[in-house]
């Protein structure tokens, strides 16, 4: 992952640096992030703000993190735990064009592996999806296994971007915790693809086919985010006085289990939401009756395409 341009003092100037670094006309960049060019121009001039969803799409196209767009650095002291450098897409010393091509390969591979499964996807399939040759894919990645490891890092980045973009806007700890969980629901094509990559990684780690270290680093970031939010809620007196690691382990395990059930057709996202919200209200919130109305979360997961 390559950070384009100098680190300046505002999100809009960093977005402008991303556009310049992409080599794309502003109109084409706006198209790639799914934003009307007029709205992009207004945001760059400061007459409107970038929404969380827009920042996520800019980060995706430019290959940076949302946190870099907001603060000029990948590290954050906010409500989303910072991934280790090793759990984010690998940085390489290369030009913008090479970095862009590498990202295109990872993103195409991410979708293919999520939809068809790692063992069914060939390098030739990835090359076809990228409109290039197998030799070109091997120029950037020596093996398919190396590509697979990068797809997990890409998933970690997607989750981190979603959390940084929106968690800071929510003040109440219970609402923030429910929102965090909602961000992880396997909803829509993107959400299901992300879960598919994780599920395949768990399977590969269990059989020795994937890097346990890569998986552990990525998962620890998710667990740490949940843990940190629970600690904040306990400090503010709205979460029960139970060891935070117990609560974080129970909640993340419940999310994992229901995510697998949704992905395999054994449960719906609505069922997952219902049971997880009940667990949070029953086992983590001090006063579920008064806090329930304050901590409502949207009916659809925020990363629904």
UniProtKB/TrEMBL annotation:
Source domain of life: Bacteria
Q: Which PANTHER family match?
A: HTH-TYPE TRANSCRIPTIONAL REGULATOR RUTR (PTHR30055), MYCOFACTOCIN BIOSYNTHESIS TRANSCRIPTIONAL REGULATOR MFTR-RELATED (PTHR30055:SF238)
Q: Where is the HTH tetR-type domain?
A: 99-159
Provide the residue ranges listed under DNA-binding region in this record: 122-141
- One matching Pfam family: TetR_C_6
- Domain HTH cro/C1-type, by residue range, is 15-69
Which protein are we looking at? TetR family transcriptional regulator C-terminal domain-containing protein
Lineage of origin: Bacteria, Bacillati, Actinomycetota, Actinomycetes, Micrococcales
Ranges where the record places region Disordered: 75-99
Provenance organism: Saxibacter everestensis
What does the UniProt keyword field contain? DNA-binding, Repressor, Transcription, Transcription regulation
